[in-house]
Amino acid sequence: MFKFYLVLLDKTSRTTNILYLELLLRIVHQIIKYMKIAYISSYPPRECGIATFNHNLLRAIGHDKVAVSDDSFVVAMNDAEGLDEYEYPKEVKYIIRQENQKDYIRAADYINTSLADACILEHEFGIYGGESGVYILPLIARLKKPLITIFHTILKDPNYMQLTIIREIAKHSSRIVVMSHRAVGFLTSIYGIPFSKIQLIEHGVPDLEAKIENPVKQSLAFKNKKVLFTFGLISRNKGLETVIQALPAIVAQHPDVMYVILGTTHPGVVKNSGEEYRDSLKRLAKKLNVEANLTFINKFVSEEELFDYLTAADIYITPYLNEAQITSGTLSYAVGSGAAVVSTPYWHAQELLADDRGRLFDFRDSAGLSLIVNDLLADKAKLSLLKSNAYEYGLHLRWPSTGQVFIDVLEEAVSKYLSEMEKAGKQIIEPDMMPAFSLAHVQRLTDDTGIVQHAKYGIPNLKEGYCVDDNSRALILAILAYQQNKSKGALELLPIYLSFIQYMQCEDGNFRNFLSFKREYLDEVGSEDSFGRTVWALGYLISNPPNNSYREFAKDLFLKSAGHFKNLTHLRGIANTIIGLAKYMEAHPYDEYIREQMDFLVAPLKASYKVHKTSEWHWFEEKMTYDNGILPLALFSYYEVSKDQESLDIGLESMEFLSQKTLADGYLNPVGNDGWLFKEGPEMALYDQQAIETMAMVLMYFKAYEITQNLLYIKEMYLCYQWFLGENSLHLPLYDHETKGCGDGLQPHGVNRNQGAESTLAYWISHLMVLQALESEYEYIQSGDLLSLQKEINNPSI
After folding, report:
1. Which range is the signal sequence, renumbered to this chain (predicted)?
2. In angstroms, rounded to a whole number, what is the distance separating the alpha carbons of residues 688 and 670?
3. Which of 451, 462, 686, 703 is the least buried, fewest Cβ under 10 Å from its Cβ?
């Protein structure tokens, strides 16, 4: 037993003491080699192949008492709402109910506060809640431990959600483990996961030897029989009818053949259709006059019993119906027991049965199966050779050997994780994590009229037409893109959006909002929000023109609209307009008329804040709704022009309140539009979360940084931007790397896959603002004290 004492060398330096503590823990970790592992998986007594695998893995890893602690534990996945559904063994310390989202968050907290050194996640889409098991993502994203993920299923043709989930799990994993070479190829070519992150470890098998006196051989189904054998949970995709259809031809040559099917019907099948499939197999056997050659053993057996069955059988058969089986535990067990295996050529079987370790027949080919079986039963030498080859190969699959490989992977992951922790925090914005800038989807949505409002998935929905809101945002994006990288594509798009705005301006200077695809006006006058956003875009162009022609054109439209400024009554319309006027003032700082309009507009914004503010509620209205960051942003914009301290104070105070409500969990959780957040009411609506809300937060924090030079605001800006890339409540990215568009919102069970103009423009505007912030961060670092910078970023309270 070791005793360690931490001496606080400097009581005034919290940072120094933390560094010494981390160093000490690393020293202790090197002295005391054993690791404590947290396993996330289904677990016995639940009847599930993943549960059995995880139980075996825990025992195999725990077998090394030098490397792994006996205090490793399991977080068990329940397929029922009740916590007492199963009588779990003592190693199960926490239970997650599959469809209870809060359980996943609590489980992450439990693991993080435990002494676990690393986590192992068994992944199969069906054992986790939400669409395609999406509920597991918030758990792993919150983990503060190195994560090893074992993928039991890798789909060749995943849908968008399945593809996204696998990529997100891989992103958060220190190592990915798969059990076949084909799985490695799928992960690299289809899912884009780096080869260096993937480890191939074949499926483990029991470390058992055949008994001299096998009790199964004396059972009624086996005694004096030539036994064909299949085991596992029964469901239609197992193809058992193919074997029964082959039986007449087999029985004709070998009347003493018995086909034994061991296993219970899959719980999901029982729930939906009872024993319909099992009964249909019995009817088929009767129809073919082979019912006497078929035996069902309807139970879930222990591994020791299963091994007895496998070694008692003459031939083991897996007749799956298609190739899409990347891993089969039952096949691995059969090979590991030294069985003679005959199988359809699904992916795992092609690999595991190569080099004469088994025989293959085509899918649903009962005639081909009967020929192979009859040949093997008639030639004992061939049968013995298959069994011998399988047995020899199975020796290296046994759990003690497999467990040692996992221990090596775990030790590497822990070491790498500690090393990366040392390097963390040196830069707020990580440009390598950001997608490359692309106007592809914006260009796809844009025609010679303007940018189309909506898209069905990534395809423009022309039926919905256009709006001035989106074309105004598109104009801002085009300007930003041209400023950032002199984008020729952006410069070509800019006059389209500017022309659209001109087309939508009424004779009195106001703006319509909606236009049909046939270029027919759909309203007489737009909303105050759309008016304000258009003024903002025009002001932005006036202050950042690529040429004088565009500036003069925009200025004409801007001044023509000025008569409507004082008629605005809605706060967001006012706020958007103030931002546009502030941009105009950058180019025309001595324009007293526009300054007067700004003074007039900011008054109701400040007044509304004072009316609604209480000690517990620092906001402008009785509720937080949409585009919330625009309100503090407007006050910051006004402050830059006026230096009005009251506006700055209100802006900072309201921004801090907004941050408390939406950034408290360490990632952005914007107010959902399905209920909002009321001053006196229920909890904040979590969904639907909208991209424009995130864009407003990004712009707000960057402006706060520009005014205060507080680097913490860049950190919070980047945190908000990461919402688009998956740092959100579901840990699903809204940005689509294939289309270069952005999903239309975050909903309770996933991403809204439509990619309209509003969300895509919100993403790319946020993206370009982050790149601007990256330049500002670099300049700050070059001119400042790096140590002070790190304290400000990582420990702002010190």
Report:
1. none
2. 9
3. 462
Q: What confidence tier does 428 reach under pLDDT thresholds 50, 70, 90?
A: low
Residue identified by tokens 């693991």 is 111
Handedness of CA 327, 333, 336, 339 (dihedral sign): negative
How remote is the C-alpha of 316 from its chain's centroid? 39
Token digits of residue 685: 């609506």
The answer as to CATH 3.30.200.210 being correct for domain 16-200 is: no
> What residues contact residue 591 under an 8 Å CB cut-off, 6+ apart?
584, 585
Cα separation, 283 vs 740, in Å, equals 54
Measuring CA to CA, which residue among 562, 560, 593, 588 is closest to residue 577? 562
61: DSSP letter = H
pLDDT of residue 417: 82
Alpha helices in 672-796 (DSSP H): 691-708, 712-721, 757-783, 786-794
- For 746, the 3-state DSSP assignment is strand
Q: What is the DSSP letter of 178?
A: E
**Under 8 Å between Cβ of 93 and 60:** no
Q: Distance between CA 638 and CA 579 in Å, rounded?
A: 7
Q: Report pLDDT digits (tens) over 496-506.
A: 999 999 999 99
> Cα–Cα distance between 295 and 225 in angstroms, integer?
12
- The 3-state DSSP class for residue 36 equals coil
Concatenating the DSSP letter of every residue in 443-478 gives HHHB-SS-BBS-EETTEE-GGG-EEHHHHHHHHHHH
Report the sign of the C-alpha dihedral through residues 114, 120, 125, 131, in that order: positive
Whether the predicted pLDDT of 558 surpasses 60: yes
pTM: 0.76
How far apart are alpha carbons 24 and 36 in whole angstroms? 18
Residue 259, beta-bridge partner list? 228, 294
Give strand pairing partners of 37: 118
pLDDT surpasses 80 at 100? yes
Query: What torsion, rounded to 10 degrees, do the Cα atoms 341, 345, 351, 354 define?
Result: 60
Q: How many CB atoms lie within 10 A of CB 255?
A: 10
What confidence tens digit (pLDDT) does each residue in 696-755 have?
A: 999 999 999 999 999 899 999 999 999 999 999 998 999 999 999 999 999 988 899 999
Backbone φ and ψ for 429, nearest 5 degrees, come out as: -95, 130
pLDDT band per the 50, 70, 90 thresholds, residue 779: low
Tokens of 688: 């639907």
> Rg of the chain over CA atoms, in angstroms?
33
CATH 1.50.10.10 for domain 432-783, yes or no, is yes
Q: Whole-angstrom Cα distance, residue 401 to residue 397?
A: 7
The token pair at 327 is 């891993």
Query: Smallest Cα–Cα separation from 777: which of 793, 766, 762?
Result: 793
Does domain 215-396 fall under CATH 3.40.50.10490? My reply is no
CA distance 56 to 35: 18
Mean pLDDT of the 211-229 span? 93
| Nearest partner of 277 among 234, 336, 319, judged by Cα | 234
- Is the Cβ–Cβ distance between 541 and 475 less than 8 Å? yes
Question: How many CB atoms are located within 10 Å of the residue 367 CB?
Answer: 11
Neighbours of 688 (CB within 10 A): 16
